[in-house]
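One record is given unchanged without comment:
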Amino acid sequence: MGCQPSKDEDSSDASSSSTGLLNINEASVDELMSLPGIGRRRAEKIVAHRERQGPFHSAEELAEVQGIGQGLAGKVAEHVTFEDDDKPYQFFACLPGPFACCQSTVRCVQGSFGSCFGSGTEEALFFPDDEVKTGLSRLLELLRSARRQLDVAVFSISHKDLAAALLDAHRRGVTVRVLTDDMQAKQDNSLVPTLRRTLPVRMDDNEKMHMHHKFVVIDGATLLSGSLNWTHAAVERGNENLVVSQHPALCAEFTQEFRRLWQLFSEKSGPSTAPVGRFSGEVAVLFFPEPSMTNVQMILEELESARRSIEIAVFTLTLDLLVNALIKKHEAGLRVRIITDNRQAEVPGADAARLSKSGLEVRVDRSWYAMHHKFAVVDQKTIVNGSFNWTAQATKGNQEDAIIFRNYSTLASEFTAEFDRLWNSFQPYH
């Protein structure tokens, strides 16, 4: 059960500021049309620009919208506020867990469900798990918190405790649906055949491309996403991550992606390619396959925005568009560090050797287990993370996901710490 507004607290219109001005970062198209000189077409362009570029902070930024200009922006500025945190606080009672309220427009209070978790607060779990199985325990706790629905899209499922949690949820009356990869389901240790005897399970039917997601949506209100497959190797031995979020836009986007694939895998109808990504505030969800390369371009733009540093920990690096951007940033004087998997660094087309020869710092693990992360940290404040490897197949063939968390300094610090931990334990490439 996700965060629910307290019934004791009234909530006002999110687009109305405490000063009586219209909050331009919350206003709908219809509300924007009440402003001087703003008709429907301009209002739609304002909303589109806001979703793509993030919140406005000044009249100068508003003037950058096509069809607005400095003169009209100045007039509009007299009737609006540019504060993206201007909306009144709401009170929430939320799931138990070790959360702190940060980067949030939600003021949290202790409620009947324990600790608080407002929108914009993320929790990062890293693997391999510790001796007391802290990460696994937290993941199981989240799955057990489901009261209505569990939508599970995971590439490989062979971990007995995690599979059992889905069956337990079903017995509690939770609606459980599973999307997984057809080839992984044929592996000897796969628990997909066991799940299929009780739960609705759907798979792709392509031996070359993969249903490569690793996400769960709990009751439509909590998202688990990252690189973690549901295997003992991933939980106990691989380098993996899982981010827990209750950001409403993220939950809604991943719920819609699940529905798209659920229909596609059953009826072989509907869109076979993912939609173009967009920003909602400071987050953007990117799904694949997306052959137009628009979603990859959004990742490229984040890399190109770097001013100080880029840290990359990605299992497979073969996508030249992104790799070339790293080389250019290195040549411009930024510190660019790359971690990748030792075996993947040697596959045909891998760019580890080219990066190293170009003078960038590259390190690899030397173990039998996978350095399976797929994340980037830009200027220690922006994260790109998900199931998405930097490959052409991930871009144009697989079902994949990546989230851009822009200006999430707390989350970025956790990923930077994980990067540094691996950097200090791994060896230079060649």
